[in-house]
Amino acid sequence: MEGLQQQQQQSKRNPMPNNEKMTKKNKKNNKTNKFEFCKVCNLNHDQGRRHIYFPNHIKSLSSYLSRFHKKLSDVRFFLKNPSLLRPEHAPRNRLWCVFCDSDIEELDSLFACGNAITHFASAEHLKNLNYFLWKYGGGMDRVDSFRISDEDVSKWEKKCESLKSFASSSSEGSYGPSLGPWKDIQNKHCCENTDSNEKNKVKSFKFSFSNSVLPLQCSTKERYQVSHPETNEIASAGLFSYNATSLPLSTEDNMHNWGMHLNKSTSMDLTASTCDPVYSGNQHSLVENSWKCSVDWSLSSEGVDRMGNGKSSNHVLQNLTQVFPLLLEESKGNVHTGAPPPWFEKNEENELNFQVDIGSNTNSLASSSSKSRMSGKLNPKRVGAAWAEKRKIEIEMEKRGEIVSSSCDTDWLPNFGRVWQSGTRKESRKEFEMEKHKLLKVECLSEGTIKLQPYISKRMRKDTGQFEGPADCS
Amino acid sequence: MSFLLTTLTKKREVDSIIRDTIDKVLVLRFGRASDAVCLQLDDILGKSARGVSKFATIALVDIDSEDVQVYVKYFDITLIPSTVFFFNAHHMKMDSGTADHTKWIGAFHRKQDFIDVVEAIFRGAMKGKLIVCCPLPPERIPKFQLLFKDV
Predict the structure, then answer these.
(1) pTM exceeds 0.80, yes or no
(2) Chain A residues whose beta carbon lies within 8 Å of the beta carbon of residue B90
(3) How far apart are CA B18 and CA B15, in angstroms?
(4) Where does the record locate the signal sequence feature (chain A) (predicted)?
């Protein structure tokens, strides 16, 4: 008891020194003891509140927020242009709200990104957003950029209602929801296609494709969708999926949906034949123009006639957004029309080149031409670079026939350095030249002294001598 | 005697091959087809001709032909076979530890030796060097006595 009391007194008597030490240590260690997880940097740190001011964190925060911003801008797009959400796509439209740490699903919404819009406008989201910005230091002035204001939401809701009313009004023959701006065209379709045995007429119209839902081209009745005997079904089905994949939709997954749909519906007819030359490889450009590409639709009657059974005409041409390339390439032809493949023309050029090369005799020519093609740029400091360039030009000209190959003069000698002790190479060559000259002179001289004369016999000489006069006689 | 390799008998032919081989090493063997060492060398040259074809051209010059004598004198060829290397019409020298750097005298021990030599010359030439070091160890370099010019 006494011991305890003493201890207590002691502790009371000396509170300060110990406590001071403790507090000092604590000040240093207090904040460094706790480990926190930073969602933005994706790491655990013990730096406490200081962490958000570190440059690494700032960088990762900016990228984090910009990524979320992109998703948000997609949602905002739908805010301005509400469109009806097809049930097939709903499971794929999910958004993760980074502030609320929750998934936003669209399973039960009628409109694209409907749930997301309502979420971003909600008070709870705002609260979470504020908390996030405080915790991770995003800048409290940016709150509004990460949420949707109530005004916008109300506008959007109005648009949605109008859409709903449109959808309900145009009921005859329409499969699924149709879209506002195309209402009239849709109605036209319905009127014209009541008689299913007639063939389709030429319809060409432009529209700005800014929605995820594909426009219908004609009325569709389910029973026509099934089993349509077509020989080139396979080919065109392939084309269809091709088609579908090039559609810009809200999510890429949606495209597969469309493709599947197309394959099932067996009406290939119009699109298959007509859009062949047109969507050659332009899917990419279209995929990239996400929402706002303008797609040309032109259905020629030829295609229809070709396919021509009565049943085929007004078949499920839904989802037949023919992806037409912005640059019309109809003139070039394609596999079906029997046009040569694009690489073939290039090949021809190469073949010609090769023939020329083979025709030329020496290996060196062929090798030089092939090497100039292969090796990009040879070292300009290599031995004899200047000579090589000059010679190449000469050979080119000779090939073309501009310069008659000037056979080098007989005295030409290559650059050769003989065995020598001092001086440059050229000196050794000069020496050689001098020696050559000496040799030549010697030869000339020796040739000069000897004069070859034909042998004349004495008798001959005698005979000639008698005529001339008394000459030397034997 | 290798069928792949062109044999040159005239100065004009030699000139044209020297002038037309651009950006490749030109290997000129001066020798006689009947000589034993020449045959050995020709065999190696013939076998490796295709392998080095991307950076070298090989040709044989018959020293018995009259036309070529000027070259025989110019290159100071006294022992055969002698191999002279050119790059872009410039003569390439190689220091192989012998007295004569201007040419390679004798045959090669192995095909790979020849390829190494040609590669060394090519690399040096591409860097702009007119003389290169021989990559072979001394035991594989054929030895000879150089007869100096005025001796």
Answers:
(1) no
(2) 383-384, 387, 414-415
(3) 5
(4) none
